[in-house]
Write a structure and sequence with these properties.
Elements lengths: L1 H22 L9 E8 L5 E11 L4 E9 L7 E12 L4 E8 L4 E9 L2 E8 L2 E11 L2 E10 L2 E13 L4
Antiparallel strand pairs: 1-2, 1-10, 2-3, 3-4, 4-5, 5-6, 6-7, 7-8, 8-9, 9-10
């Protein structure tokens, strides 16, 4: 009986880890890689980000560490954000938290739309969407704006994230 309980518990724990890994599989192409983008916001200010994604805590979370502008003048580049993506079993959704160097935190949900990865979050009184639109294994179109029912109502930024190769 004791062996049966032990085997059952091991099976249950293994299945829970596999289920979480499967739920985060939309990030698989991004993980253990660094992605870089350059562009301009709608107001003309520069955008630059370099993001490295990694699994952590036995593949139950994904961390995203970003480098980008860390001053209003956009002259200094440094560690800008640290993000966490995690499958929430209670709501059966992927949630994310993004902590920035300025003391802010952005919190929202992640939605898979085919191979596209959609982040939605509250920004002031608006719901903002960041979309990683899959082009191929090395490139994603990246858009930030207002996205409702599969349609962009307004776009604040449009650029591409490209996988970086080791130099």
């Amino acid at each position: 009986m004791k062996n049966t309980i032990t085997i059952f518990l091991l099976f249950f724990v293994s299945m829970a880890v596999i289920a979480q890994d499967t739920e985060l599989s939309i990030f698989e192409n991004l993980v253990n890689k660094t992605w870089k983008a350059h562009g301009n916001w709608g107001d003309g200010s520069k955008f630059m980000q370099e993001i490295t994604f990694k699994y952590d805590l036995e593949k139950t979370i994904i961390t995203a560490k970003s480098k980008g502008f860390i001053d209003k003048e956009q002259t200094q580049i440094g560690d800008r954000n640290v993000g966490v993506r995690k499958f929430d079993t209670a709501s059966k959704t992927i949630k994310f938290w993004e902590f920035d160097v300025f003391g802010g935190v952005t919190e929202g949900k992640v939605i898979a739309e085919g191979k596209n990865i959609i982040y939605q979050y509250q920004y002031g009184t608006s719901v903002v969407t960041d979309m990683w639109e899959y082009v191929n294994d090395n490139t994603y179109n990246f858009k930030v704006g207002t996205y409702e029912k599969g349609v962009w109502k307004q776009i604040y930024l449009s650029t591409q994230f490209v996988k970086q190769t080791k130099e």
